[in-house]
Amino acid sequence: MARYRADAQAVAAFAADTDPGGRIPVPVLEVHGIGDPIAFVELTDFFRQTMERAGTAQRLVQTYTDDSEHSDLGDPVYPALLAELLDWVEQGRKPTPQTVAARCETMKARFGDGCRFRPDYRPLSLDSRVAPRERP
User: Fold this and answer.
1) Residue ranges making up the domain that contains 115
2) Residue 34 falls within a domain, yes or no?
3) Whole-prediction pTM value?
4) How many other C-beta atoms are found inside a 10 Å radius of the C-beta of residue 95?
5) What's the 3-state SS for 75-134?
6) pLDDT tens sequence across 73-130
7) Among candidate residues 120, 61, 49, 64, the one with its CA nearest the CA of residue 96
8) Residue 85 included in any domain
9) How many domains is the chain partitioned into structurally?
């Protein structure tokens, strides 16, 4: 079996274009389905670590739902997230997973069922799911 070594310059150029740096100057309110089959939930731990390394983790709130979908997480989920994000931006009231879940419950009367937030959920590290990337 042939083995190939990555070209260091190519890896650096690709990383400069695609690797997240975490230097995000605005609030980030993330939602992720725990059973997402496309972008597995452990990726969110890597994103959190990236923002921590960049010194911007205070701008990140991560929430999780008990869903096995990538993008259709329930009708009341999205207006709840938007309302919480607007409160954060306009009033300085940073949401928590608990406040997002509670806001979703208040949205059910207008948007129907679909609130499956798991406020206490924490994903495992990305390394628990895939081998760490080796860089030249």
Assistant:
1) 25-128
2) yes
3) 0.86
4) 21
5) CCHHHHHHHHHHHHHHHCCCCCHHHHHHHHHHHHHHHCCCCCECCCCCCCCHHHCCCCCC
6) 999 999 999 999 999 999 999 999 999 999 999 999 999 999 999 999 999 999 999 8
7) 61
8) yes
9) 1
